[in-house]
Amino acid sequence: MFATDDIGAQPSAGLEIDAIAASVLGAGLPAAAERRLREAGEAYHLDDVAETHLLAACDLAPDHPAVLIGLYRFYFYKGHMLKALEVAGKCLVMASNELGLASDWRDVNREDADFGSFAAVLPRFFMFTLKGYAYLQMRIGALDEGRAAVMKLLDLDPSDKINAGLLLSVADRSGVEDDD
Predict the structure, then answer these.
(1) N or C: which end of the chain has fewer CB within 10 A?
(2) CA 39, CA 56: separation in Å to the nearest integer?
(3) What is the pLDDT of residue 22?
(4) What percent of the chain stands above pLDDT 70?
(5) Phi and psi at residue 114, to the nearest 5°
(6) Which helix (H) or strand (E) covers residue 98, if one does?
(7) 112-to-46, 126, 156, 158 alpha-carbon distances in Å
(8) What is the mean predicted confidence (pLDDT) over 69-88?
(9) Could you tell me if 149 and 137 are in contact, meaning their C-beta atoms sit under 8 angstroms apart?
(10) Which residues contact 107 (CB under 8 A, 6 or more apart)?
(11) Residue 171 — very low, low, confident or very high, per pLDDT cuts 50/70/90?
């Protein structure tokens, strides 16, 4: 999903975004939740302490994208793929709801949102979340599910601005033995 620098980013001049899209960038985050996210970052090397702070942030702002992104990234980088996958699923549901998309990503169509534009914050959030979901599915061995998600990404944005094709090439190589 997004890098931590993206969370506090400000929209460029002239870019109009609504309040929900702004929350993807960190707007509207309660101060107590922001403090817990900061404390989690400071305690990153202490897994239990950092996770406690992140879960407290989730209690304070359970549907805020910045909190979910922080929790996702923590689980991902700590190697807790199933927990990261659970958070990615929550993010997909949230993004789908906010965009008025079908509840199942498989039923989303290219015409439903501007998936090929980086200026379209919520569709971009949906795309990066689905990409994370695809990657995690592949990491846990669910190659067919991961491949299906990548194919959906390429269908939604044929120009492949988020580089989902790279995941497809990884999936294509899986199971192929090295000759070396």
Answers:
(1) C
(2) 11
(3) 52
(4) 82
(5) -85, 70
(6) helix 81-99
(7) 42, 12, 9, 14
(8) 96
(9) yes
(10) none
(11) confident
Once rounded to an integer, what is the mean pLDDT over residues 95-112?
Answer: 95
Phi-psi region of 120 (alpha: psi -120 to 50; beta: other; left: phi over 0): beta
What are the phi and psi torsion angles at 96 (to 5°)?
-60, -45
The amino acid at 123: P
Highest mean pLDDT among 8-17, 18-27, 155-164: 155-164
For the chain, the first-to-last Cα distance in angstroms comes to: 34
Query: What average pLDDT does the structure give for the chain?
Result: 85
Rounded Cα distance between 151 and 60, Å, is: 36
- At 100, give phi and psi (nearest 5°): 70, 30
Distances in whole angstroms, Cα of residue 119 to Cα of each of 12, 64, 161: 9, 20, 12
State which amino acid sits at residue 174: S
- At 24 the pLDDT is 53
With a CB cutoff of 8 Å and minimum separation 6, the contacts of 30 are 60, 61, 64
Asked whether the predicted pLDDT for residue 120 surpasses 70, the reply is: yes
Structure tokens of 55? Answer: 């879960």
For the question of whether the overall pTM of this predicted structure is more than 0.85, the answer is no
66 by DSSP, 3-state: which? helix
